[in-house]
Amino acid sequence: MNEHKIFRINIVTPDGLVYDHRSTLVVVRAIGGEIGFEADHEPTLVSLQIAPVKIYRVNGQIQYVAVNGGFLEMDDNVATIVANTAERPSDIDVGRAQTAEERAREQIKKAKQDHDKAALRRATVALNRAINRISTASLKNH
Amino acid sequence: MSQSLTDIKHRISSVNNTEQITKAMRMVSAAKMNQVQRHYTQYEIYDTKLREILKKVASSEFFRYLTRSKESDPEAFQNIYYDLTEESIVNSFIESRLSDYQEKKRQKAAYLVITGDRGLVGSYNSSILKSALSLLRQAHKKGEDPMLFCVGSVGIDFFHRRNIKIDLEIMNLSDNPSFGEVKKIISKTVDLFQKGLYDHLLICYNHFVNSLTSTFRVEQILPISELEIFDEVGESQKVEPLVDLKTFPDPMTVLDTVLPQYAESLIYGAILDAKLAEHSASTMAMKSATDNADDLINRMSIEYNRARQGAITTEINEIVGGASALE
Question: Chain A partners of B261 at a C-beta cutoff of 8 Å?
Fold first, then answer.
């Protein structure tokens, strides 16, 4: 891993800068597929899905951050993820995420019965968020 | 000496109690203000970053094509507009540049009025509501039927009393609202806009100037017309783009993410700003209440001392009078 060049990865949310570290590789799930970023990547703007972001730290450690959509900007060896929320696995309340998941599933069922498209979309987003949190939390020990 | 000594004493102690309460409330408000202020600086990091990115997007090749008018560059226009459908987000989100392409149809306004949840904030709420009401009345006079979103129970009660329909309301915000807390109202507002239920959004709130003053402000958030970003870029239109930004999966999808997020950020910023102004208004109100109580106590102490002096004088008079009567 040591031959890899290092770049900076920041995550900003409306509640401030939540992540600021150096990294050798960042893998995000963009709309349309997964993308990995290494240092000296060309300036890019990428729309993200609600999914965990995988960050390879300089010491070889792998960290995950649950990012709620938003986008990633890579420019001048600084990758910045701008999202509404972003949580480290240790900050995730799994119990809460699980109840949110159940609630979202019920809402989806109900929305499908009522043919309420808007409610369905909202519930789907909520479900994705909950699943994202749960899966990120379970990745903690890797 | 109209009042008895004990009367005045009672009043002094009751005013004293009140003063202690207002003093405590002032300190609490000041602490909350600091909290929100700190939060606001955190938010500013996010806001600045978002603006920066938007600026880059605006300077990118794609966006320039997008905003160039049909006449000046018909060929480029055709290429790019090929997949721009009527519901396309960019059309609705960005106003001025696309006006020649899209008929201006400013018909349905929406007002987002941000008030506090409680009183004891001086003229904070009343000044917002008065101005907002007159704005709404003007709109009605013009035959419009604007939508109304309201934050804060004071505003909600106010409009209910006047039988004005509120389309979206949220109350009991915490003193230092996190983004997650207000996300619902924000995304709903942006959602309704994207669905085309209204076509421009005005936010009415008190803008925090400094801890002594705040001013009422009406800001148009949607469509994003606060395009100093785009104007700046527009002027340097002949210059090379800031960076040659690649987008993934495609420019439209990226704009679809960036623009709503920017709109949400603006609304959140306004709510934070309003909260800041509310706490500072509350601090000021409590400060002047404390000062008034101080004045009152001073005046009453003088009154009390006079009454006491008077009582002593009368007593001496009586003793002297009694003694001389015995002689």
Answer: 70-71, 82, 84
First to last CA, chain A: 17
ipTM score assigned to the predicted complex? 0.81
Q: Is B43 on the interface with A (CB under 8 A)?
A: yes
Tokens representing residue B120 in the block: 């004891």
Q: Strand, coil or helix: what is B88?
A: coil
φ, ψ of residue A99 to 5 degrees: the values are -65, -35
Q: In this predicted model, what pLDDT tens digit does every residue of B115-137 receive, in sequence order?
A: 988 888 888 899 899 999 998 88
From the list B53, B179, B244, which residue is nearest A13 (CB)? B179
State the nearest Cα–Cα gap between B296 and chain A, in angstroms.
44
Residue-wise pLDDT for B237-269, tens only, equals 444 455 567 777 777 777 777 888 888 888 899
Q: For chain A, give the longest Cα–Cα distance.
A: 56
Tokens read off for A141: 């020990």
Instruction: Give CA–CA dist B322/B34, Å, rounded.
Output: 66
Tell me the CA distances in angstroms from B179 to A22, B142, B166, one per residue in order.
27, 36, 23
